[in-house]
Amino acid sequence: MEVLTTVSSETRLPKLEIEGVSKWFTPKRSLMVQALDNVSLSVTKGEFVCLLGPSGCGKSTLLNIIAGLTKPDDGRVLADGKVIEGPGRQRLVMFQESALFPWLDAFGNVMFGLKLKPDLTNAERRKIADEYLDLVGLEKFKHAHIHELSGGMKQRVALARALAPDPHVLLMDEPFAALDAMTRDQLYDDIQRIWMESRKTIVFVTHNVREAVCLGDRIVLMSPSPGRIQQVFEIPLPRPRDINSQELAAYASKIAAALKGTANGASSE
Ligand SMILES: Nc1ncnc2c1ncn2[C@@H]1O[C@H](COP(=O)(O)OP(=O)(O)OP(=O)(O)O)[C@@H](O)[C@H]1O
Ligand SMILES: [Mg+2]
User: Fold this and answer.
1) Ligand nearest to the CA of 31
2) Among 45, 49, 182, 193, which is most exposed with the fewest C-beta within 10 angstroms?
3) pTM score above 0.85
4) Using one digit for the tens of pLDDT, what is the confidence trace for 26-42?
5) Residue 69 CA: which ligand is closest?
């Protein structure tokens, strides 16, 4: 693994420590697939890290291990210095498909996320749900049913639902991949604004180079068969970043070239 630049993290605390994680799957009895091979990475508190790489390089597997949804076969992951043994309300995941409850409206979905905070009164939950629907720009669609919302609006509801319980870490698995380019561009602005306000630690999976450069403090480039960290790039561009800017394009082309070196390549759109 080559580290191009390192973050000046001496004074900053690690939020997540991924230590020598390996994972094997056995999709058929005679076949063993190594999804991750000795992956180590430290993520600082408040950092926005993008996992980038071609299909099958183990991005989702690594994210699920951080979430505590999958157990590593080797190595371990620590959150705030404690080994992750299972899912926890401090690490919430947002997937590509919004996985919202269709029988609840937008408000009901955000309220459901707040069940993770049993210490709150119902009035407090309602207030928080309203605040987060405001934050993602959906205050007017509070009582809209999920099927009445566009793909981008559904992902906004999912984002509000994940943020409302105030997790320390937000884990996002290609959350905007199914959306059209214009909706995505708007969401890049929103997620950056929300991150700058909340300073959550975010691990964001993508196979889109520009998206990674637009959002990440660091980009962790992974390669497949077996999944490994290939290179780590620091992106020192000021924020908020415009995905269509020339500075961003210059970084993207450098990273896209590195990505071509990985087995299958990926989208640099
Ligand atoms: N539950 C599972 N059972 C069997 N094999 C699996 C399972 N989950 C992942 N794999 C295998 O592990 C490898 C890594 O998969 P993973 O889904 O983590 O990749 P990815 O980088 O997220 O890919 P994509 O960009 O397509 O989402 C692949 O070879 C995949 O087939
Ligand atoms: Mg995946």
Assistant:
1) 1
2) 182
3) yes
4) 878 888 999 999 999 99
5) 1
